[in-house]
Design a protein that fits this description.
Structural class: mainly beta
Helix content: under 10%
Number of strands: 5
Number of helices: 1
Largest sheet: 5 strands, mixed, barrel
């Protein structure tokens, strides 16, 4: 069952994960990977922290915990180790606020 949060982000949402350069996940440095939100920890100074199931470049799955979920268009910390909603997903955009907007993932926050 998909569980909404007050930000509009839900467990099961697809996100884009940017691994750290030293991460053991098979990918080219800085290459974005697809991931699924497995747990939402809550808001911090860097955004939401989430646990992810990350699919590597070979189609294998890896878990990552405590990953910052940044608004679309936000500059990530350092060279990786964060995730964001795919462009065009709606909901979280830099400057508007996490979960603001209508439709898509932001719908729960607007209600």
């Amino acid at each position: 069952m998909v569980t909404p949060t007050n930000t509009g982000i839900k467990v099961g949402a697809q996100v884009t994960f940017i691994p750290l350069r030293e991460d053991a996940i098979p990918a080219s440095p800085g290459e974005p990977l697809t991931a699924t939100v497995a747990k939402i920890h809550g808001r911090t100074s860097v955004g939401l922290l989430v646990n992810l199931a990350v699919c590597d470049a070979n189609g294998n799955w890896h878990s990552r915990t405590g990953v910052p979920l940044l608004p679309i268009g936000a500059v990530g910390p350092g060279v990786g180790g964060y995730c964001t909603l795919p462009v065009g997903a709606g909901g979280m955009t830099a400057g508007i606020g996490m979960g603001a907007g209508t439709g898509g993932l932001g719908e729960a926050a607007a209600a």
